[in-house]
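Figure 6 in text form: structure in, sequence out.
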């Protein structure tokens, strides 16, 4: 931390999304409506699962956890982005930038593990329906949730330790509307090619590994169900469709 305090750069400049007032107003309305929708929708899911005893099952417990993570991930960047739309000087302090990057990767890591847990839940429900309640019990849900947070924090820390002590003494324009490790690393006053590669490979390996694991699990489920009846295959595909949609929407921007 002594190196951090000794850095010449103590704040970063974020990128503006629009210059004209008309475009700023349009983006403000667009992002504000979407953010309110995210807040209301995810809180509705969480409170519905909590207060409706009929939804106290593994699938809905995992869904409530996913909603909380989605809420946290959106709140890490969107409010700041909305507030900066009308700001002439889009400045973020060094420590705020570090905190933002840390929580982005924590939440992202947790969400990926929860998606794997939900895929396993769907596999158990479709391929082993008679053993579902035995395998996917409350203890298993708690283990999945704890494992997701532990892995998410470990992923963020593994990225964070490379960046926190870098010397920043020159350019401070991030070139984006939020802080992220690859962009901030490029601003360090040293050769960061290898470090950029390590950080990018770290995130890429986890993201791509999780994505392909989920795709393989879907294929395995559908092949297993196909051996039964076409009706069972159709029902399995309908059951998986919502989860597949979430996976595609989450991982496509990552790639």
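Output sequence:
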């Amino acid at each position: 931390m002594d190196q951090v305090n000794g850095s010449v750069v103590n704040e970063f400049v974020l990128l503006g999304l629009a210059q004209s007032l008309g475009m700023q107003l349009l983006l403000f309305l667009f992002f504000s409506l979407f953010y309110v929708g995210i807040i209301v929708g995810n809180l509705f899911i969480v409170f519905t699962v909590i207060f409706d005893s009929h939804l106290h099952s593994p699938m809905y417990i995992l869904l409530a956890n996913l909603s909380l993570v989605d809420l946290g991930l959106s709140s890490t960047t969107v409010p700041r982005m909305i507030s900066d739309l009308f700001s002439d000087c889009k400045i973020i302090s060094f420590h705020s930038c570090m905190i933002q990057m840390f929580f982005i990767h924590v939440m992202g890591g947790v969400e990926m593990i929860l998606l794997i847990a939900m895929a396993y839940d769907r596999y158990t429900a479709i391929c082993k329906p008679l053993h579902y309640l035995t395998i996917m019990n409350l203890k298993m849900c708690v283990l999945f949730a704890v494992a997701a947070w532990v892995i998410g924090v470990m992923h963020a820390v593994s990225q964070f330790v490379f960046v926190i002590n870098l010397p920043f003494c020159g350019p401070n324009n991030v070139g984006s509307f939020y802080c992220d490790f690859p962009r901030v690393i490029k601003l360090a006053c040293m050769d960061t090619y290898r470090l950029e590669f390590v950080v990018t490979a770290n995130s890429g390996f986890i993201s791509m590994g999780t994505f392909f694991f989920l795709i393989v699990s879907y294929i395995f489920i559908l092949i297993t169900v196909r051996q039964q009846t076409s009706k069972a295959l159709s029902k399995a595909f309908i059951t998986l469709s919502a989860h597949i949609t979430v996976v595609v929407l989450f991982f496509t921007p990552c790639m």
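Caption detail: The longest strand covers residues 11-13.
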